[in-house]
User: What shape does this take?
Amino acid sequence: MLNLCIGLSYSFISVVFFGSWFVLVKERNPRDGLFAQWMMYNGMMIFGLGLLICEGTDARFYPMSALGGGAWGLGIGPGYLVPDVVNCLGNFIIGYYGLLGTNRVRHESSGSPSWASC
Assistant: This one.
């Protein structure tokens, strides 16, 4: 029962801190968000290392876990890339040629199809 209470309290703390982090980002202009994500992941890493030091657990390296994480990381890139490229190209072709009942996208000044929306 004690382990359940500890686990639920850690979950509650993570929900409060992780959810409240986005309030700070919403107040400012994060531009493309790359720096904000980098800082968020740095905070997670520093918190994890601090927790590891405070608990004093034995930090061991598990090579099969690292191999699995690396394989997952290599697989997730193409997993996101392929549908995103198909989505972008499909939307461009539909807008450029006016397929599926849509009107061709025209540039306001020249009347030619707009390449600026790519």
